[in-house]
Structure prediction request, 274 residues.
Amino acid sequence: MKKIGIFLLSSLGLISLSVFGAMSKQIVDYRIQVKLLPETKGLAGRETVTWLNDSSVPVSELQFHLYLNAFKNNRSTFMKESGGTHRGFKVDEDNWGYNTVKSLRIKDGEDLTSRMEFIQPDDGNPDDQTVMRIPLPVPVGPQEKIALEIEFEAKLPRVFARSGFFDDFYMVGQWFPKLGVNQDGVWNCHQYHENSEFFADYGVFEVEITVPKGYVVGATGQRTKQRENEDGTVSTTHYQEDVHDFAWTACPDFVEFRERFSLEDLPVDTEMIL
Prediction:
């Protein structure tokens, strides 16, 4: 039996932002390539992230969220606080999820993989791995930038608390190593809690998503490219400025509808996707 799901995706932002300029100060710039691995319900990804130190003081370390590690076992802070239930649903203990950083280096520079460590700034729970700290060899000065290259892999849990899989349906949220927010030299980078929301800087996302041929992808931003690969997969690239997160979904049973919405005042030319 076919599964039926309806997703109203955010407008693809075909509005010409050159009329207004950037709508936010772009602190982060993410360029990500990710491949869906249906056999393992996993992801293989590479990420280049550029971060602007928008504070008045040098910053000597970076902190990242690894949200999927909240679903790594029943000892994470999220699982302890929630008891393994969320909005009436119970976690599937046969299908945990995780996010593993395989390598991290300064772009065209030093390998920082050995410097990575998990920290628990909120509760000291040694089994929680949802925040990662990386001391830097040289501090990032005020209004300076640093670019990092990251290789990571992820396993999606069975659909639970905003992310996961069910059969060949994938809801991919909070899935990539994501920088916290630095506020005048102090990191605001909390663990994943039962009752909390996601806090991040605004910036630019360009994400290439590779899925098996026949899958329909919906994602944040405007679809700018699509190509078929020799290995039977299809890659689509999505681009969006002035957002603080990127999510996507994929399933061979999706049916996609598109419609343009235009206004003259204010000037809007947007493609809506259902």
